[in-house]
Amino acid sequence: MQNSFLVSWRNITCHKKRFFFTLAALVLGVAVMTSMLISKSTFSNLIDEQEQLNAGDADFWVQSNDGTFFENDLAWLQEHEEVEEQVSLLNQKGFAEMETDHPMQSSVRFTGVSDFDNDLIKLSVSEGDVTKEGLIITENTAALFEKEIGDQISFQDMGSLEITAIVHEGSMLNSPETLESAMFQDIQVMVPLDKLQQSTGMENQISNLRFKVNEDTGEDQLLAIYQSELEGSNLFVQPIVADSQQNNDVEGLYYVFDLIAILSIFISSFIAFNMINTSIIERKREIGIMKSLGYTGGNVVGLIVKEIGFLAVIGTVVGLGLGIWFGLYFQEMLVSSIVTQNIDYDVIITGPVIISIIVGILFPFLAAAWPMYKAGKTPILKAMLGTSAAQSSFNKLNKWRIILGVVFTGIGLIDNVWAFLFLFVGLVLLFPLWVRGMQIIVRPVLTFIFRFSGKQALRSIKQFERRNANTAAMLAIGVSLALFMSAALTSLPEGMEDEIDATFGGDIIVEKETPWTDTALEVVRSLEGVENVNPYTEIPNVTWHTKSGELREFSIMSFPDISSAETFAVVEEAEGNSDHPYIYVGERALMEWGGGAGDILTLNTPAGEQNFFVKGSVQTSHNTSYVAFAEENVVKNELNWPHDYHLALDVVDEDTISAAVLALESTFGLEINRINTITLTKEQYTSGVSGMEELMQGLLLLIIAISAIGTSNTLFMNTMERVKEIGTMRAIGFTKRQVQFMIIAEGLFIGIAGVIVGVLYGILVIYLNSISADALGLLSFIIPWNSLLIAIAGGILFTLLASWLPGNSASRISIKEAISYE
Amino acid sequence: MIKVADVTKEFKNGKEVTTVLKGIDFSVKEGEFVAIMGPSGSGKSTLLQLIGGMDIPSTGRIELDGEELQTKSEKQRTIIRRKDIGFVFQNYQLLPTLTVYENITFPLHADRQKVNPDEVQELLKAVALTDYEKRFPHELSGGQQQRVAIARALIHKPAILLADEPTGNLDRERSSDILDLLSSFHQERGQTIVMVTHDMFAAGHADRIVLFKDGVIETEVQREDEDYAEFLSRFMA
Amino acid sequence: MSVKHSLLALLYERPRHGYELKTGFDELVQSMWPLNAGQVYTTLDRLERDDLIESPGNDQKDRKLYTITEKGVETLWSWLEEPVERSLLKDEFYFKYLCASHVDYEDKQQMIQAQKQTMIKDVLHLTQMKQQMNRSGNDTMRMLVEGALLHLEADIKWLDMIAKD
Questions:
Q1: Which of A452, A728, A732 to mutate to test binding with chain B, by most B CBs within 10 Å of its CB?
Q2: Contact A731, B87 (CB under 8 A)
Q3: Topology of domain B2-236, per CATH?
Q4: CB A587 within 8 A of CB A619
Q5: Distance between CA A374 and CA A377 in Å, rounded?
Q6: By C-alpha distance, which of A493, A600, A501 is closest to A544?
Q7: Residue B62: left (phi > 0), alpha (psi -120 to 50), or beta?
Q8: Among A401, A594, B138, C164, which residue carries the largest CB count within 10 Å?
Q9: How many CB atoms are closer than 10 A to CB A176?
Q10: How far is B110 from chain A (nearest CA, A)?
Q11: Contact: chain A with chain C (3+ CB pairs below 8 Å)
């Protein structure tokens, strides 16, 4: 047994370069897959964790439609025995005592906490003790003020407080990193509640109260009890939900990660297939002899299984190491480009590594299944007497392959997200056909550059047509996906910008701490450049259940009436009528819920549990479409949300936006909770995407690089099988350079064929997506010229590099040895 | 035409050094047909490869038409080879992906020379393969393949034809065919030929036979020499 | 013995007189079989006696012409039809070898080498002849030379074989 392992090991390592390149391809494939999986799991875990931190261990919270309320309004709650723990919070704005160019830079958002030693607020501690009463700041703030634990920070009207803890940035506390960004972002700190109440003159008032109930009481029942207690008051209760979807639309990102992981392992398996297939064809005779000596088909397969086992295990182990390292690196880039803050997160490795091990070991075997089957079936006599395989198989296109290819391509043209996978399988199957076509186009080029060597290369291409076609197909898939993704990344922001223009609802949105009054609105109207002023409101934390029973949360925005709704665009409207209030729901929320237009949706609103008739599904730039819209009178009269905290402003033109923002800030100062402009929103979106674009281009270059390894490997095999021929060519007059050019020309052919077909398929996929009903018109038909150039240049450059090495080794083939081959 | 002076050739295999040629002096006149005979491993093929510029001697000189080969770069030697030398091998060494016609014209293309179709046809006729130009090597018999190889070796009108065991893979009848062909090129066109063989029947076609043994030339005989047969029989004993 | 048949063959071609038959024969065997005029005439006499040929008379130069008779034709055909058997001891060297072994001849090796040399000479001679035949286009003769060369190849191999004993 040990002996047979040795034989397998010798077999697989006898062609060192081939072994090395195949292994390299597997390693890279596994590495890319592992890193993608790690990134995906870590990232989704990070988002969930942030949300979980925000929610803490609390089960419910009570808020008021006035913003704040008196603590003793909830005195009744103290009598409920199921309440185990509670904490009151007050949010107020103020200023820190610090030297700044502009007062806005020192603006602080305080969160007053009634009890520091609680389980209901989760903070991720960097230093100090969060359970001690005092001042809690974030790492950014500590850096900004250059303070440490035990130091003091002074605030206007409040005096100095001692820093008791420093925490990582998170959704609970989150501060600007620099003074520049402090212009637009508050410094967020946590202080004792009573201190804040005193200094702001809000004695006994709080913004919300969070509490936890013991576990043996049904939460739904409790919610109903609390809702009935609060009925008719300004207060309302909501279960606390960790739902990150209104802030993040990351499914697209996950999809891209999956795609790259699948693609990389697919390409590297294909390289393994090429190698195993070749090695089995080469050893046909040997296998025939083994069988004649009494080896069964099973024995032969067993021998090969061990060989693949070596490849798979070594490739996976090394690939995992590399992948984890790369995953960590990639993860950091990803977090810094998307989250834009220093946050603390756990890296998820175990799950991805297990999946990678399984896939990394399984895929080479899957790739080898067909060649192994053939090896087991090798007839003894035919193999022992057989002529070289190259002669028998060349010049004939496999009819079934082409038919199957056409069928798969046909399926691929169907409008479905997953159909394009069929398109690519079709591409691989049809590739020999494309190779034939390419020869007509590429022939003059290669002949022109490499003269006779080029012509000779085209003949060699035919000799190993199938293997060359497969290799070029891998490159083509890489290139076409590169194009598609970059088209998507270019056209998504454009589509998004259009959508923001269409549904932002104005040029500036201002959210105030207190409701907008008529006098305040008059003041705004009188500001220079302001044309139009539309107050509206947004009910936060409206909870509901998905059809599968998960608790979810979004907000409801008000609109005056459907004919003048500027914050969304209706995609689909239900025909029917209903006694329930109408509601328009964003598409992502609708998808998460599992229902559609015309269904009844039950929501927990500030007015308690209510049913709504989903009048339509809509697209909007607000909350990444994870939001609902209701008519103003419904919100105010039926949902117990009478005040307008939001204001949408139209200004004369884009240039006046920043002037108007400054005017608003200096007029209302601390009262303003948040200002957002249409330009800022667009900028945020595009900068997020463009950061992604570079990452994607890097990854796709990596995929082209893996394909290039495949090209190298293929060329090595091609030359190995032609040692005799190449020696002859040298003997009868080819110089070393001519031989090298010939091999490089072969590689170049694979490169050009792969790139051209890849570009054509890429454009086809972009086109299919632009007319697709599924992609919601976000993707328009554009050709990403930059990426096209990168793909073409990268594809050709990488294949040139990849063919240089085999070309070199072919030119070094010894004439003497080659011609004395028997 | 060919002058080999005091040539030695060593091969290193790890630490082991084998001397294949031990001081060879040898020359070939224009229009001569020389056969080099000797048992396998006697160095005769190595000498042929040195004359063909595929390798350089460890010491000594090799002159081809007055040009010294051992001082030339690999590339220069390749260029000399493709202009002045035609090669015929024991195992034909045709390029399997090329047709007969393409195989024959390969040396011209490699040297970027124009192909004159009439000359190719003439050569095809001379090797009796007129109707085979579109065939691929694997569609031909061994003898036919070797005839293609001869045509390929002669298409660029080389000064010297080097043949390494050209009949080694063929039966007597086909061998005789090939040898007749070589003889006719020699006699009718004055082609200089150096042929390595261990077959006396093949060597009998040559004007001169050079006998190799253990890396040295043991003896040389002209066809008209009286002791031709005696040497041969001794050698073959 | 085949002089008879070769004359029949030449006469089957066309009627000839004695001298023409001699030159015809020389041409047929490429002068490799010396045949004198006397042999021709005695053979002709015997053929005429056996009614295999007859003479229709003399030509203008008064030379006796011969033609083949029906019986002659039959004899020629049946000769061509008859396969030739090979006798083991017809080869003289075989006999020499047999006798040399029998008397424990000391210079047996010398004898073998001498034979080999002769045969190599024959090979070279025949190879040259073959080249000649190639040039002159005499295919029948060339095939005979090929045959002889094949025999020689086998014979030389055999000599090598017995030389080792």
A1: A732
A2: yes
A3: Rossmann fold (3.40.50)
A4: yes
A5: 5
A6: A600
A7: beta
A8: A401
A9: 21
A10: 6
A11: no
> Has residue A487 been placed in a domain?
no
> Model pTM?
0.74
**ipTM for this prediction:** 0.83
Is there a domain that residue A766 lies in? Answer: no
Provide the token pair at A425.
């399988």
Tell me the nearest-neighbour CA distance from A392 into chain B, angstroms: 10
Domain range holding A149? 65-217
CB contact under 8 A, C163 and B232: no
Q: Is C120 on the interface with B (CB under 8 A)?
A: yes
Burial of B12 (0-12, 13-18, 19+ CB in 10 A): exposed
Pairing of strands A60-64, B16-28: unpaired
CB-nearest partner of A733 from B78, B97, B98: B78
Contact C68, C11 (CB under 8 A): yes
pLDDT tens by residue, A260-299: 788 888 888 888 888 888 888 878 777 777 777 767 777 7
Q: Could B236 and C120 be called an inter-chain contact, meaning their C-beta atoms sit closer than 8 Å? A: yes
Contacts of A427 (CB under 8 A, 6+ apart): A405, A409, A473, A476, A477, A480, A757, A761
Q: What is the dihedral of CA C42, C45, C49, C51, to 10 degrees?
A: 120
For A475-586, where are the E strands, in sequence order? 508-512, 530-536, 538-545, 551-559, 569-573, 582-586
Question: Of A217, A251, A286, which residue sits at a domain end?
Answer: A217
Q: How far is CA C159 from CA C107, C109, C149, C155, C163, in A?
A: 15, 10, 15, 6, 6
With a CB-CB cutoff of 8 Å, which residues 76-115 of chain C face chain B?
A: 113
Element (H, E) at A805: helix A785-811
The neighbour count for residue A814, using CB atoms within 10 Å, is 13
Helices marked H in A378-512: 380-385, 389-393, 399-412, 419-450, 452-463, 465-503
Written as six digits, the tokens of C104 are: 């424990």
How many structural domains compose chain A?
2
Q: Which helix (H) or strand (E) holds C37?
A: helix C37-49
Mean pLDDT, residues A507-516 taken together:
86
Residues of chain A found within 8 Å of residue B153, distances taken between Cβ atoms: 732
A144 lies in some domain:
yes
Helices A399-412 and A419-450, packing angle to 10 deg = 120
Q: Over the stretch A735-783, which tens digit does the pLDDT of each residue have?
A: 888 999 999 999 999 998 998 999 999 888 888 877 776 555 556 777 8
Does residue A121 sit within a domain? yes
| Domain-ending residue, one of A618, A651, A679 | A679
